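Our consortium's second objective concerns turning raw sequence data into structural hypotheses that experimental partners can test. To show how far this objective has progressed, the report includes one record in full. It was chosen at random from the queue rather than selected for favorable results. The single chain below, 94 residues long, was entered without modification.
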Amino acid sequence: MNDSQAEIIQINQESLKTLIRGITCFQEEFSLILVVCNYRTLREQVVQQLREQCPVQMRELVLEKSVQTLYTRITEELGTEQPNRHLQNSNIMW
């Protein structure tokens, strides 16, 4: 591993810590947190680490490139369900 790769890993870990802190701060109310990742494998790693390290139960909503509006996609997913936890989106612009 070269210095550049080590730096990228460090930046990603700091971003994950920031994400976990943000999710934890809003655990008593509904919040929508969008996570953008450039690579599918990186996204899968981040989601796995998030599930392992974050104490808050989350819901993941994947958006395909064809999705035109975020609101429509969320209402399709939730239907009449009233969210009482975080809705975590980890797949915008993949």
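The partners drew two points from this record. Strands lie at 32-36, 58-62, 86-92. Residues 3-92 form one domain. Both points have been shared with the crystallography group to help prioritize constructs.
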